[in-house]
């Protein structure tokens, strides 16, 4: 049964409500005993101790039907020192099938009221690589969370814990046994608010404690990256190769073209323009692509499918190319440790004259030879025939993403309106949030959106004749503006308010920003506003305001160019991608200071005859 996002949300709330009663499950403890088998499968025996409740509850068990099997579900009531097994009243099983989630199911177990209870069940998995993380956070209140991992002698466990400092208690130890090793982990998990997507392995903008894990054969001792690379390389080897008709099409596209960079551009543009993006599946289908011939035949695929096809097409034309596991800005972790839990994305990587070129065929406005916007400051794991390698994606610099406003304005003599024209240039990826509207909706829709957007940006002033021009490295807007109620005369003085100047951060209308706000990329914004007077004024010394912080600065200058013209300029540099603990204080200080400056009138003295 196909469902919508709305259906998923309703399903999610059904798991947390039983007979109209809100669910607030408090667990005394949760223990997961994970046994790694010699045949590269593993079994997880889960034991949950519930606190007594006045109401019945539903406890959901989410699992992947491609790889996992849930069995041996039992519930016990505590009778003194004894545990009495109870009959299972209800187990509700539901398929969860969305456009981009195709292999998840949920079993909801009814937990009776008014008893101290223990729930046990087994989860078996045939793919050892799927044991990729231990969660140290919970959607329920858990007093104690324990993991016990038994690893046979032929394997060893490698691990990496993120955001460990957010845990109030964390302990881990390992002991050598005659059969291998035994790991014990005990934490007081961090309580987080549940989100429907979390149950399906989709985490966005979460900074929660998580242990990334990888079980490697002893023959790969101290080589986890090589093992991850070799495992994945072997899996995708079966999905490579191009048939004759595809090769003919690629030859046709690149006929008489010999420059490798031009070949990359042609094939990259062809895939982005002619292949439909369809989102990921869960299970190994989330990581192993479809065969490149199948992707071409269907003209669709997700990130791994399109990147694999693109890589094969480039290799056919003699251009060295690989695919890489990656983690976008909103993933729970960076891809700087070899584990499937580290990645939520796959891209293509090409090599020309010693240059590593990133290609993301799911991003229709990405340009080769530039960083992928969603991967700035992130690490990717390049999969190749050698040992694999991590590669750090650079961020754009503020100067690469220059936003330039030029306003030529004049105060009307009769009604004191300020009228004029403006030009705006978005360089680099500074205007990508607008380019995406142009890509998906078209020029007319962007101009309609732009008129309302800039009216808001200029302080609710009137915008007309807006025109957009899309160039390869620049997005250009031009139009006319009419500004009302910003000039006043008072005897010998003229008052000019400049709160129509565009705000510092266009994509955020709030006066102060919260930690975790994603600002897409560093940028440098410069405003040049010339205002011609309707009568002569006395010239004055420039008025300057300067604010500096780590990676953020603002310089404002107001000056008289002559007795009939003033200029209001500002330069704002923001060399960050997120609002974080290290920059939030200075950024908000600058935002408040800017607001205060532009809200105060400039007092201009009329020139005496």
Can you give a write-up of this model?
The protein has 609 residues and is α+β, with helices and mostly antiparallel strands. The strands form 9 sheets. Strands 7-6-10-4-3-13-16-15 form an 8-stranded mixed beta sheet, with no helix packed on it. An 8-stranded mixed beta sheet has the order 28-29-27-26-32-35-34-33, covered by helices on one side. The longest helix has 16 residues. The radius of gyration is 30 Å and the shape is globular.
Please give the largest β-sheet. 8 strands, mixed
Structural class call reads alpha+beta
Number of helices: 9
Distance between the termini: 83 Å
Q: How many beta strands in the DSSP annotation?
A: 36
**Portion in beta strands:** 35-45%
Quote the average pLDDT: 90
How many whole angstroms does the radius of gyration measure?
30 Å
Low-confidence blocks of residues: 1-22
Query: What is the global morphology?
Result: globular
Cross-sheet strand order for the largest sheet: 7-6-10-4-3-13-16-15
How much helical structure, as a percent, in the residues?
10-25%
């Amino acid at each position: 049964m196909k469902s919508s996002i709305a259906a998923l949300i309703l399903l999610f709330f059904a798991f947390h409500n039983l007979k109209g009663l809100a669910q607030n499950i408090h667990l005394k403890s949760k223990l997961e005993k994970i046994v790694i088998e010699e045949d590269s499968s593993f079994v997880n025996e889960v034991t949950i101790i519930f606190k007594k409740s006045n109401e019945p509850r539903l406890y959901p068990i989410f699992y992947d039907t491609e790889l996992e099997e849930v069995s041996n579900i039992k519930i016990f009531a505590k009778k003194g020192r004894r545990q009495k097994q109870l009959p299972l009243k209800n187990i509700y099983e539901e398929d969860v099938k969305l456009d981009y989630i195709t292999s998840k199911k949920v079993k909801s177990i009814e937990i009776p009221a008014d008893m101290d209870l223990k729930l046990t069940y087994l989860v078996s998995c045939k793919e050892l690589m799927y044991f990729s993380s231990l969660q140290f956070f919970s959607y329920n209140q858990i007093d104690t969370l324990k993991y016990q991992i038994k690893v046979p002698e032929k394997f060893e466990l490698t691990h990496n814990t993120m955001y460990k400092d957010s845990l109030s208690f964390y302990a881990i130890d390992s002991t050598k046994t005659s059969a291998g090793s035994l790991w014990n982990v005990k934490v007081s998990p961090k309580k987080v608010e549940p989100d429907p997507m979390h149950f399906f392995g989709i985490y966005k903008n979460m900074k929660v404690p998580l242990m990334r894990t990888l079980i490697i054969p002893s023959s790969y001792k101290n080589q986890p990256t090589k093992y991850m690379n070799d495992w994945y390389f072997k899996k995708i080897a079966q999905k490579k190769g191009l048939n004759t008709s595809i090769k003919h099409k690629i030859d046709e596209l690149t006929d008489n073209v010999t420059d490798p960079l031009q070949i990359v551009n042609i094939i990259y543009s062809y895939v982005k323009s002619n292949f439909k993006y369809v989102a990921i599946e869960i299970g190994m289908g989330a990581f192993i692509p479809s065969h490149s011939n199948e992707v071409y035949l269907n003209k669709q695929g997700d990130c791994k499918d399109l990147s694999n096809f693109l890589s094969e097409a480039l290799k056919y034309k003699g251009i060295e190319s690989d695919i890489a596991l990656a983690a976008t800005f909103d993933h729970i972790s960076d891809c700087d440790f070899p584990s499937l839990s580290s990645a939520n994305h796959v891209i293509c990587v090409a090599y020309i004259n010693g240059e590593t070129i990133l290609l993301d065929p799911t991003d229709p406005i990405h340009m080769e030879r530039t960083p992928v916007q969603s991967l700035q400051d992130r690490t990717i794991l390049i999969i190749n025939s050698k040992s694999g390698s991590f590669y750090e994606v650079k961020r754009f610099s503020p100067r690469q993403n220059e936003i330039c406003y030029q306003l030529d304005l004049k105060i009307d003599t009769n009604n004191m309106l300020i009228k004029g024209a403006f030009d705006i240039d978005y360089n680099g990826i500074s205007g990508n949030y607008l380019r995406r509207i142009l890509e998906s909706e078209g020029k007319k829709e962007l101009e309609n959106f732009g008129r309302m957007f800039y009216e808001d940006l200029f302080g609710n002033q009137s915008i007309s004749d807006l025109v957009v021009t899309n160039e390869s490295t620049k997005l250009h807007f031009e139009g006319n503006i009419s500004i009302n109620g910003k000039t006043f005369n008072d005897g010998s003085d003229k008052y000019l308010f400049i709160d129509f100047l565009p705000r510092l951060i266009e994509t955020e209308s709030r006066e102060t920003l919260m930690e975790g706000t994603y600002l897409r990329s560093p940028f440098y914004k410069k405003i040049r506003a010339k205002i011609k007077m309707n009568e002569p004024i006395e010239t004055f010394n420039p008025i300057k305001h300067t604010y500096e912080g780590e990676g953020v600065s603002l310089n404002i200058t107001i000056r008289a160019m002559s007795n009939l013209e003033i200029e209001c300029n500002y330069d704002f540099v923001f060399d960050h991608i997120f609002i974080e603990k290290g920059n939030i204080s200075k950024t908000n200080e600058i935002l408040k200071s800017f607001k205060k400056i532009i809200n105060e009138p400039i007092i201009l003295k009329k020139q005496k005859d």
